[in-house]
Structures are given as C-alpha cells and as structure tokens.
Design a protein that fits this description.
- There is one protein chain.
- The chain has 4 helices and 9 strands.
- The protein is an alpha+beta fold and 185 residues long.
- It has a single domain, classed as Gcn5-related N-acetyltransferase (GNAT) (Aminopeptidase), CATH 3.40.630.30.
- It has a 9-stranded mixed β-sheet.
- Helix 1 packs across helix 2.
- One of its GO terms (biological process) is mitotic sister chromatid cohesion.
- It comes from Pelagomonas calceolata.
- This is N-acetyltransferase domain-containing protein.
- InterPro entries: Acyl_CoA_acyltransferase, GNAT_dom, N-term/lysine_N-AcTrnsfr.
C-alpha cells in the first residue's frame, strides 16, 4: 500500500502549502534556479525520448539546457522543479504568461511537463499542473493552455480529468498535436 505524503511548495511569492500526493516519499517543489536547469534538461530528454543512443541523449540534453537557460526568468514566467528527499530532480514544468513571440501560440502556456519514470502514476504531474494553474490565476489570467500529442493517451486522460478541453488539432496525421485549454473561472 502506498502511503500518502505531503508535498511542500516553497515558491518566492506564496506561502508554504501542503498537498497530499499518492507517493511513497516526500517531494519538494521549488522554483527552478539557473543551477537546476541542467538536471531539468536531462529529465526532459529522458522522459520524452526514453532509451536511445547515449550520444543522441547527450546532444539533446545539451540543446534543452541551452533552451531552458535562454527562457529562464522574467515577469510572468516560472520554471518548477520537483526534488526527491535525496535531492534528485523527479519532475519539471514550465509556466509562461509572457506575450508570445510566435503568432498563434496562446498564453498563458504550460509546457515541458516531465516526471521521472519511477515517480509516475503517483499524482506528481497533476500536482505540477495544478500549481501552474494557481500561478496563472495569481497572474490574473482566466484560462490556461497547453499542447499534448494526440497519441499520448495517459496525458490526455489526466488533462481531461483536470477539466481541459481540446480547442485545436495541428500537425501531420501521423503526429497530431492537441492544443487544450482550461477555464480557471
């Protein structure tokens, strides 16, 4: 039996809050500093690409690290990292409310949600998304958007249970991407 644990949220602008997670150990959720982005990039690459050639993963992680650093900081932008009791990065998400530089990219936007494989199915992804939703509300937005691959049934189910609805489908038939939104009213 998995015992519920408390998730402590320690972000600059909010009070500490306790959340019950379906996990076997405590997880600390923090605003990611520039020093956390190397681990976050490795977590993203291994979550999205799985077991691949180590050279490919190293190059992809390097590119991700550079991208995360370029987007770090600023008003209405936050990167969150979840850490295990041992201090390992076990979850990551980006929440961006800044004006988009690309036409057609809705804001505020949640992206790069990743949970380490051994921490999946414990409620951590849901907790990360819900924390982004509360941040977006604090920024005075009334809705939030994200994109998910149409073939990612587990993610689409989770988002559906959280109240997200498909607003657009993009991409080639072999790789459809759903833009989904949730009203925060």
């Amino acid at each position: 039996m998995i015992a519920p644990v408390l998730l402590f949220i320690g972000l600059r602008y909010s009070e500490r809050r306790r959340h019950v997670l379906k996990a076997s150990e405590d997880v600390l959720l923090l605003e990611a500093g520039i020093e956390d982005l190397g681990e976050a990039s490795v977590l993203l690459v291994t979550s999205f690409f799985g077991e691949r050639n180590p050279s490919f993963l190293a190059v992809a992680a390097h590119r991700e690290h550079r991208r995360l650093r370029e987007h770090h900081g600023g008003d209405k932008h936050i990167q969150l990292i979840a850490r295990s009791p041992a201090g390992d990065a076990v979850g990551y998400v980006d929440c961006d409310g800044r004006p988009s530089k690309s036409p057609g990219r809705p804001r505020p936007y949640v992206s790069d949600l990743a949970v380490r494989e051994d921490y999946r199915r414990r409620g951590l992804a849901t907790c990360l998304v819900q924390k982004c939703e509360s941040i977006v509300k604090a920024w005075a937005f009334d809705r939030v958007f994200l994109k998910v691959e149409a073939s990612n049934e587990a993610a689409r189910k989770m988002y559906g249970e959280l109240g997200y609805e498909v607003v657009a489908m993009d991409g080639a038939p072999s790789k459809q991407i759903c833009t989904i939104k949730k009203s925060l009213l």
